[in-house]
Design brief:
Elements lengths: L5 E2 L5 E2 L2 H5 L4 E3 L9 E5 L1 H6 L4 H4 L2 H8 L10 E3 L3 E3 L2 E3 L7 E8 L5 E7 L14 E2 H16 L6 E13 L3 E11 L5 H9 L3 H15 L9 H23 L1 E2 L21 E2 L23 H20 L3 H13 L1 H16 L9 H12 L6 H14 L3 H4 L6 H16 L4 H9 L9 H12 L4 H10 L18 H4 L9
Antiparallel strand pairs: 1-2, 3-5, 4-11, 6-7, 8-9, 9-12, 10-12, 11-12, 13-14
Helix pairs in contact: 5-17, 5-18, 6-9, 7-9, 8-9, 8-10, 8-11, 9-10, 12-15, 13-16, 17-18
Length: 498
Amino acid sequence: MTTSSTINSAGLVFDNSYARELTGLYAPWQAAQVPQASMTKLNLALAAELGLDAAALGTELGVAIFSGNQVPAGATPLAQAYSGHQFGRFSPQLGDGRALLLGEVIDTLGQRRDIAFKGSGRTPFSRGGDGKATLGPMLREYLISEAMHALGIPTTRALAVVSTGEAILREGVLPGAVLTRVASSHIRVGTFQYVSAQDKDELIRQLADYVIARHDPALSSAENPYLSFLQAVSERQAALIAQWMLVGFIHGVMNTDNMTISGETIDYGPCAFMDSYDSDTVFSSIDRQGRYAYSNQPQIAQWNLARLAETLLTLIDPDPERAVLLATAVLDSFPQRYQAHWLAGMRNKLGWTGEQPADMELARDFLASMEGQGVDFTMAFRRLADLVENGDANGLRDLYDDASQLDTWLPRWRARLAVDALDAPQRAAGMRAVNPLYIPRNHLVEQALNSALQGNMLPFEKLLEVLQNPYQEQAELALYTEPASAAAAVGYRTFCGT
């Protein structure tokens, strides 16, 4: 890739490879001007990681840049084009309907990062929408994405939320906002689908070569770089979805335009974390058939990868039948890839240091013991760590409506522990290091957002602070470990915010 750099007073040094190398996959565009911008939240730690001048960004200059009112030197704002299967139905042209890629920077570790807006106004891809975003959903994305980062789960991140001074009509009149989002890239499965739908072999090769150079440069010298690329994306997604499942995260809208090639979680609209374990949990208000339920997420990831594979067939092999065979072999390996990541994570969560043939069955049986018993998913693993240390199962049993299945499971689990030579304090500490105590509990998120909309950011700031250290118990934060009441949890739904 060629390079060109321009510096401005906020420390932003842009090197916009997507704009240079993928003409035809975007529309140059400008953010809408907003009437009364003000900084609601600035991520100082992320700004430092990006090598930005946090002090300058905290002034009116930062407000002007992150509201879209001022284009910083070297930026090339553009709306990316992509397609997508939305709830299984193909839309040939979606694209950034309310987002803009401002440009790319090289962070302090030498990694290329996108800086993009969300809620910055209409684009050529808006499809009749106003292109705006409201404050609540943008703060929600900030909160959840930063929580995911603290959990060690690959994710896009939030750099800033700016209030725009606009009144946006949704279910009511709500305050407007623009989110600034950072990602390794915003290239999606849907980006490949958009190019494939145009039936231009050279353009799909150009896109694939660009993405390999950006995300998997070592693959450029592979025997079959495009097949190896499909394998790499599959591996990243297998690892990512396993991490979601291990913490009870439900994305809610796993359309192909919401699956990144980089393996980062993206688009925190109707997402949520489970309280009580239920493998069929759905929070999204628009997922009426449960397509993206908790337990379906691995299968949906594989389905999405099949759509990516379809776009790469002509690159994988000129013989269509051989291309299909090669791609199918990669796709067929996804369940095994996913299970390997999930089981490795479950072994850590359950306190096992080695590998035994029956581990998968025993891990699944622990989840089965929770099904339908009102068991808080997060606390169950923490109580299991307590049990390792103090030998008392009552704390764990108290989470269950009926602990009979658990009582059958516990002796098998104890026998499995005995296989590994590890003392109890070490084992318990290891379990607590991978089983979070603090997650974005749905009722706490809603309380924080409601307070923010009333002008009080303190609950948001406190919750964000707690979520930055999800594994280390602090006695004074017990409130943040408690699930919502049963009455409050029933029928809880999340929304896209569009």
